[in-house]
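Hey everyone, long-time lurker, first post.

I ran two proteins through the pipeline my lab uses and got sequence/structure pairs for each. Pasting them in order. The first:
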Amino acid sequence: MNIVLAASEAFPFCKTGGLADVVGALCQQFAGRRGNKVLLFLPHYRNITRVSSLKIVPGVYLIPIGDKIEQASLSYVNWGNVLVFFINNRHYFDRPALYRTKEGEYGDNDERFIFFNRAVLEGCKFIGFRPDIIHCHDWQTGLIPAYLKTVYKLDAFYTRTHSLFTIHNIAYQGHYPYSSFRKAGFHPVDYTPEKFEYYGGISFLKSGLVFADQINTVSPNYAKEVQKNAAMGFGLEGVLRTRSDRFCGILNGIDTDVWDPELDPVLSMGYDCMEMEKGKMAAKLTLQQQCKLVQDPDIPLVGMVSRLDYQKGLDMVVRVVERLKNQAQFVILGTGDPRLEKAYQSLARKHPGAVSYSNRLDEELAHRIYAGADLFLMPSRFEPCGLSQLISMKYGTLPVVSRVGGLVDTVRGYTGDNSDTATGFFISQLNEQGIFETVANALQVYTRKGVWQRLAKNAMRQDLSWERSAQAYLDLYSKTIS
């Protein structure tokens, strides 16, 4: 099968969140299976990493944006069996960050990703690669399925090409004014509520949902939520219901080569589920030392690695940390809402031996938190799938999670009589008091070392790899193109 993945980020080349981890892992999974040729298209951002051996594709090709013409060129790198193509245009992509600065989103993000979407399609023609399927990810690539069904409908090069559109987070929709629809080059006849029109403008995400041959999201439970619940569907639940026969949920996995407590190079001592106590203790002491906390392996430690925004619910946790600071230690890593950053900075200053906060992206510290913490707190208001709870369980750190989205599909909550199967804790009510009570109850279970060890081993024994999920995607590809 000739497979093209198009995304705005992919690990290890560029990353702001879980989307990058998923795209990077899927590429490698698909390319490792016989008969697949896999290409990945990414924008060539300024801060692209691991591309010292870039090769240049000679020549340029032209992309119309409204009434102007922009030039695109390609460079590529062999990443295992995956060919990664970077779309070059300094005007759109040579910037300090991928999507935004501290002041807000780039004002021309509509043009940047109109350019990228068309440059992927024209890029395939430029190098002569005919895809059987183009797998598009989130709003930044939502116009590709629309182009295939409209502007490129009669293009012989794409006669046998189909599209799959994956929603990683429906809250981010790429909503722009009508002028952006015109810049994209679509015909006004298609500007109807059934197709492109969205509250007087255009939503790149809605375009993907309407025009893709198949749609999926990243967990079965989230697929149900975004169709039934207006608060979860963010205005697109009706569109999804009309396409329910072509919509499904496929659970994310994690890259177990990157996330493996036994072989993790960041840890001073590896461990597995059979002999985890010494390794967890060493990781905890190292984390406590690095974060300038009181060094004591018997003090329960709660970790959080997250964007600080409304979705993640960490605004409800500030007072919980204050109330539990004498019973547990807290390590928080993440950036986002400036008000939340200040709140956690203040907590860390007031309680230096019990609370640590780092407002940066730090992969090594993230690994140490997943390994060194006893509990991992995720009070998300919505969570399409979530990777952090999967990683924490892989490291024997028990997640405390809300009962939403993929968290329901991946965590088995402890009820007091299911220590042989439970892998974490569900928050009783999603508010400050509910989070406080659930964490406090989990800390009580922590004192029962035998039970705690069983739960941690249950978590570590799960198959959290991409194997089954990648096969589910390949099956969906085959269904889509048949």
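...and the second, right after it:
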Amino acid sequence: MYNDNAPHLENHNVILYALQMNYDKLTEKKNELDRYRPLPLALVRNLEEWFRVELTYTSNAIEGNTLTRQETALIVEKGITVGGKSLKEHLEAINHADAFDWVQTLIHQKVSSLTEHDLLQLHSLILKGIDEENAGSYRQVAVRISGSRVVLPNPLKVTELMADYFNWLQTTKNVHPVELAAEAHYRLVTIHPFVDGNGRTARLLMNLILLMNGYPPAIIRTRDRLSYIASLEKSQLGGSNDDYLTLISRAVDRSLDIYLKALKGEEEPFLLEEKTVRLLKIGELAKRSRETISTLRHWTKEGLLDVFEKTPSGYQLYKPEMLDRIRQIKGLKERRFTLSEIKAQLKQR
């Protein structure tokens, strides 16, 4: 008998296999990193300082802070005021760096020991001097995510949901640390327990869990902002969380590479995102790849191509590296891979 669900189940199994392969690869790299321990103190200090600035810059940028990477470094490392920037943006940089320092004091504890008090303390550091009334307190009002169709929980349910959240966090076992950290982040932003600062708090909590398990922090790059937000929303609206888990896995993978390359004395991978890159509109991408615009739009919708950013007029802009991605997709299609199988293959690369 023909089973209508068979193709769906087959594709889902392919994606699960790809995710497990990602986790296995991360475990291998983490084990390689462990073989270098104890790490040289000077190297650890340099890496921690770099991650402190980079995490502060990228996490705040995701939320709309306009400070550049260099401006963020001046503020958090030198205490220098940047002209033309608001007091709030300065405080967001200072607070995030201070919150990351506080996170570092907890990394030798176990994930099962994390409490609501820890989370509220983390949130209070994020909003210190910005919104003292709500800093370190659960929301008591309804909130919405601007531009999103996601409906957030009623404020009357937040306390109960957070109690369930910590019960889950303290008792969950036999889950890969990267998946646990990503899931902890996802569940927190989905409850959205605070009036403001939910994303920054969730990303720091995710990184605390990674650090507790011996992994380096995951940096959500500014170039990945749209993919990050879209993958969260997709899951929150009842879709698959595969895109989200893959995005976080790749972020951890990049951070592991940073540590390993530094330990091996290889070229520093701290490549600035602000290098000038000529972005391509979909028409130019189609012309240079010799593919139709409608096909590229479909592949984008299916998550095979990444939109780097959108113009104020709504034009989607792609990085030139998407030309290589298109060549990979074409090659896999010639081998009769389905789009779901192609997507799973691309996630492994």
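Reply from user beta_strand_b:
Welcome! Quick read of the second one: The chain has two domains: 38-263, 280-347. The beta strands are 280-281, 309-310, 316-318.
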